[in-house]
Design a protein that fits this description.
CATH topology of one domain: Serine Threonine Protein Phosphatase 5, Tetratricopeptide repeat
Order of helices and strands: HEEHHHHHHHHHHHHHHHHHHEEEHH
Strand content: under 5%
Structural class: mainly alpha
Largest sheet: 3 strands, antiparallel
Strand order of the largest sheet: 4-3-5
Distance between the termini: 140 Å
């Protein structure tokens, strides 16, 4: 009732105002719409018409705006509802993927992509399903579709590059990593991946160039120290390539520089000595090998010294070096092993026995030590002791056990186990020579006798 009263009051006020305005503006106004079409109305009527037209236009625009707003909200709500439904299906698919149920994961993820083909994460997850099922081609195809949806997406590009690499398509993987670096020259993950491929391919110079860029843009820390070590290793590989190509001066210079930066890097010392020997500078090679053993206690230096001295028919010089080192460090068991072996080669059996027995009494126990001891006992005509050492070397006991080997991890045991104690695999124990015995064929002596008689 109040609203009606207000409307009546507003109409009365409007009517009074209209009559008042008409009374003081008695003239008429002519409006031309075209040259031939015109309308002549009282000024008050013309004003009212103009106001009504303005109200109609304003309200029309308002209603149109409200309609469009409502339509957009309705459409957006539908999109949001669809996105929530597709997201729920996708999450369920990922859950099945993580739980190992690849069949259901495939169905759900395929459904999410069918509902929304623009979902990049759906393509990535379905690609993971295909790859775990061993369908590499399908996985790559799905990743390519994801790449079309997001050509610069890092996750997509890295996943595609990794898949190419794992499937042996290294050139295509390298292309992806280079594309990533074109977009971000300081992307360390892409640089490291590309470097590792170059290393696998033996492209040492390309790998070294990438490693220099990695170090240049790296911050200090533990990881940087690792990268510096890789840089030295790559420099060494190039030096080794120079050595194999006969470029001895370049190899020598590079190895010497590497040793200055890392005196504990054994390969550089070994190759430096090899390069000196190849260049006819045996005295320099001997010094490198001797210094290398003194600093690092690695057997490779002793092996190199032995080869060099024996080939030069100078075993006395090697024996002198071994003995001098024993005076410096009488508890050097590695040197005792090589000294004992050298003495045995030189028929110095008593001294050889002394060093080898020192090793055995120190708790050292391995096959070749027992073989050396057996050979020393044989040369002293101690046959029983030699047999005992051979038995130890061959792990033969009084029961003549043949032992078992795990087909999964290769661990050896005297006793059979239903489950391997090392790798925890069931039913994997068998005789070490089982396949060799199964594949062999028994020699048929009767056939040989028959063939022999036929030949007569």
């Amino acid at each position: 009732m109040i609203l009606v009263a207000l409307l009546v009051l507003a109409f009365i006020v409007f009517a009074i105002g209209f009559l008042y305005f008409w009374g003081i503006n008695p003239g008429e106004i002519t409006v031309f719409l075209t040259n031939d079409l015109s309308y002549t109305l009282p000024a008050a009527i013309m004003l009212i018409c103009v106001l009504l037209i303005g109200l109609l236009i304003g309200n029309g625009l308002h209603f149109l705006s409200a309609f469009l707003y409502t339509f957009r909200n309705w459409k957006g709500g539908r999109r949001l509802k669809k996105a929530e439904e597709v997201g729920s299906i996708y999450r369920s698919g990922v859950g099945k993927l993580l739980s190992g149920d690849l069949g259901k994961a495939r169905i759900l993820l395929k459904k999410s992509i069918d509902r929304d083909p623009s979902r990049i994460d759906g393509h990535l997850a379905l690609a993971s399903v295909a790859l775990q099922e061993g369908n590499t081609d399908e996985g790559i195809e799905l990743l390519q579709k994801a790449r079309k949806l997001d050509p610069k997406g890092l996750e997509v590009l890295f996943k595609l590059a990794t898949t190419y690499e794992e499937s042996g398509r290294r050139e295509e993987a390298m292309g992806i990593y280079k594309e990533l670096l074109d977009g971000d020259a300081n992307n360390h993950k892409a640089m490291r991946a590309l470097r590792d491929i170059q290393m696998d391919l033996g492209h040492w110079q390309d790998a070294l160039d990438l490693q220099k860029k990695i170090l240049k843009t790296s911050k200090s820390g533990v990881k940087t120290d690792t990268e510096k070590q890789i840089l030295l290793q790559l420099r060494y590989e190039i030096a080794r390539s120079n050595f194999e190509a006969g470029e001895l001066d370049r190899a020598i210079e590079a190895c010497r520089d590497i040793i200055k930066k890392d005196a504990k890097f054994t390969p550089a010392r070994v190759t430096l000595g090899d390069a000196y020997h190849q260049a006819g500078r045996d005295s320099d090679a001997i010094k490198v090998y001797q210094d290398g053993y003194k600093a690092l206690k690695r057997s490779v230096f002793l092996a190199r010294l032995e080869d060099l001295y024996i080939n030069a028919e100078e075993p006395a010089a090697l024996l002198a070096f071994y003995r001098s080192q024993m005076q410096v460090d009488s508890e050097d068991l590695l040197l005792k092993l090589y000294l004992g072996r050298l003495c045995l080669r030189l028929e110095m059996v008593d001294e050889a026995m002394q060093h080898l027995i020192d090793l055995e009494t120190s708790g050292v126990d391995f096959t070749k030590l027992h073989l050396l001891l057996a050979e020393a006992q044989r040369r002293r005509n101690n046959i029983d002791e030699a047999v005992i050492e051979y038995q130890k070397a061959l792990s033969i006991d009084s029961h003549l056990l043949l032992g078992f080997i795990c087909s999964a991890c290769g661990a050896r045991f005297n006793e059979w186990h239903s489950r391997c104690p090392e790798c925890k695999t069931w039913d994997s124990f068998s005789l070490p020579e089982r396949k060799q015995i199964q594949n062999a064929k028994l020699f048929d002596g009767s056939k040989m006798i028959l063939l022999s008689e036929q030949g007569k």
